[in-house]
Write a structure and sequence with these properties.
It is a single chain. This protein has an eight-stranded parallel beta barrel, surrounded by seven helices. It has a five-stranded antiparallel β-sheet with strand order 11-10-12-9-13. 40% of the residues lie in helices and 20% in strands. Helix 1 (25-43) packs across helix 12 (362-382), helix 2 (56-64) packs across helix 4 and helix 4 (111-127) runs parallel beside helix 5. The protein starts with a strand and ends with a strand. The chain has a single domain (2-246, 307-387), classed as TIM Barrel, CATH 3.20.20.150. The protein contains twelve helices and 15 strands. Strand 10 and strand 11 (280-284) form a beta hairpin. The longest helix has 25 residues, at 150-174. By secondary structure, the protein is α/β, with parallel strands linked by helices. The radius of gyration is 20 Å and the shape is globular. Residues 60-230 form the Xylose isomerase-like TIM barrel domain.
Amino acid sequence: MRFRHPDGSTVHLAYCTNVHPAETLDGVLAQLRDHCEPVRRRLGRDRLGIGLWLARDAAHALVTDPSALRGLRTELERRGLEVVTLNGFPYEGFGAEEVKYRVYQPDWADPERLAHTTDLARVLAQLLPDDVTEGSISTLPLAWRTAYDQERATAAHTALTTLAERLDALNELTGRSLRIGLEPEPGCTVETTRDALAPLTAIGHDRIGICVDTCHLATSFEDPHTALDALTQARVPIVKSQLSAALHAEHPHLPEVRAALAAFDEPRFLHQTRTLTAAGLRGTDDLGQALAGDALPDASPWRAHFHVPLHAAPAAPLTSTLPVLRAALTRLVGGPHPLTHHLEVETYTWQALPPELRPRARAQLADGIAAELTLARDLLTDLGLKELP
């Protein structure tokens, strides 16, 4: 979906396909048929943007087989789909029964991360629509915080600098300008936008910037205006933003609130949980840990890294951080010029919701994704952007 900003530039809105992960190229093609095109039809649009997640094997197959890459582009066009952004955070296994800490491997100190992201860039350069010259790829924020010493930090810095050089060369070769955004996430080396300032300014290349995920922003209790202003002042490029909402519990000391939270404690993904105290931010790696005894202070609200559907906040006594998303979006695209031109709805947790809230069929999932995109579209038009055909 494309929108015209009042300054005349185009803002792209997509939804991320990691909600129905596929490890192989055949699986990606099935995604387009079974999920992406039905969502487009529900929206009544001739064109729908998708943020592709390509696992290692799928990306490698596309890079090594030009005919396969041409075939994917043809299939996208045939189904009324377009790609201007990729989700390069998960490497593989995102559909496994248990993902948890595995999603952070390999990290940016591992040569495999550089190789995979280079493959993604080469693929995206060929998938961009003919009238689009700029693409974006989100990636993990360096590494999970443990076992990340100075030696690994130096290796990550070198890898990202090498990637920037490769993106420069790719631009010269193809005329397509691609940028990478580190995506701050609770528990990682770069947990907040503030944490991103030092490593990104040290790299000092405009092809390496930040991806602002509004669920992660909210989980860490960051104020959107303060965070985004700091990035702007530091001249850190906001490569893309993922529009998502976290789980919010206003009174976590109450038994009924803890019982409601426990329904979201599931085995597939990490749901880092945070609270803001007078002494600063406190947290646990997972929701179950927070609910276990006195692991996390409960005198102040809790927020958990659980991407809840944008249009459907949990039932009381829980809610979502949709207000944080609204505030961030106002700052991102509501001003005289957009801070980013790439927006991506990323609710990958539909099948991790409590059983009674999960879609029971493909049609229900498509309905839910279409409803999320409709809400995002309405937020954009309320800010003065005009939806384009």
